């Protein structure tokens, strides 16, 4: 950041003190919006945990089927929905200890499951209604949240297609670790 600041002031001579102040104010407002979303997600996660919703979901999944592929589909759907509603760190803290043993029980490699979970949550970062990345991208692009929320869907669909490939072809994820003897 300091490097960019020095380049803008001394090399390109395009950054003035007035621009710097405006930029800092704009960044502060953006950061405040994001922190508000994160702050609101944590009590929601606490409420889910208090009511044992993650444990109930895990019991429901294993009660439906023991089929590895169906369990992976259910986990993907659950993580995509949770990623749309909650902050990523809260989801990992809540669901990883519950979903990982289920995935391992049906024969999913732990590293493969971790990649599936992270990709799901990355998709959630760009998906309304919470989509924290959208709250960052909209002001930077100079467009409304509604406009960017509509424009994101082709990208989300491609991300979901890639998620399905990674989920059901574990060699995509595990090729390098296996080649290295892990």
Structure report:
The protein contains 10 helices and no strands. It is 82% helix and 0% strand. Helix 2 packs antiparallel against helix 7 and helix 3 packs parallel to helix 5. The protein is mainly alpha-helical and 182 residues long. The two termini are 38 Å apart. The protein is elongated.
What structural class do you assign from the helix and strand content?
mainly alpha
Mean pLDDT metric: 85
| Distance N to C terminus | 38 Å
The helicity comes to over 70%
User: What characterizes the major β-sheet?
Assistant: none
Q: Give helix and strand order, one letter per element, not per position.
A: HHHHHHHHHH
Total helices: the number is 10
- The whole-angstrom Rg is 20 Å
Q: Could you tell me the strand content as a percent range?
A: under 5%
Shape: elongated
- Enumerate the spans where pLDDT stays under 50 for 5 or more consecutive residues: none
Number of extended strands: 0
Secondary-structure map:
Elements (H helix, E strand, L loop, with lengths): L1 H10 L5 H34 L2 H12 L3 H18 L2 H18 L4 H16 L6 H10 L3 H7 L1 H16 L2 H9 L3
Helix pairs in contact: 2-7, 3-5, 4-5, 4-6, 5-6, 6-9, 7-8
């Amino acid at each position: 950041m300091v490097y960019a600041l020095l380049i803008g002031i001394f090399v390109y001579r395009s950054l003035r003190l007035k621009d710097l102040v405006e930029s800092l104010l704009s960044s502060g407002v953006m950061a405040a919006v994001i922190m508000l979303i994160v702050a609101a997600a944590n009590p929601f996660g606490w409420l889910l945990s208090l009511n044992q919703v993650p444990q109930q979901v895990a019991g429901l999944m294993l009660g439906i089927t023991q089929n590895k592929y169906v369990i992976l589909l259910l986990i993907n759907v659950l993580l995509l929905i949770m990623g749309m509603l909650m902050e990523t760190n809260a989801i990992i803290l809540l669901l990883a200890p519950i979903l990982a043993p289920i995935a391992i029980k049906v024969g999913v490699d732990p590293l493969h499951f971790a990649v599936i979970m992270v990709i799901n949550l990355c998709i959630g970062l760009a998906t309304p209604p919470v989509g924290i990345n959208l709250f960052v991208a909209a002001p930077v692009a100079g467009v409304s949240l509604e406009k960017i929320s509509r424009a994101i869907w082709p990208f989300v669909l491609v991300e979901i297609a890639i998620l399905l490939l990674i989920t059901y072809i574990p060699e995509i994820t595990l090729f390098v670790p296996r080649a290295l003897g892990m």
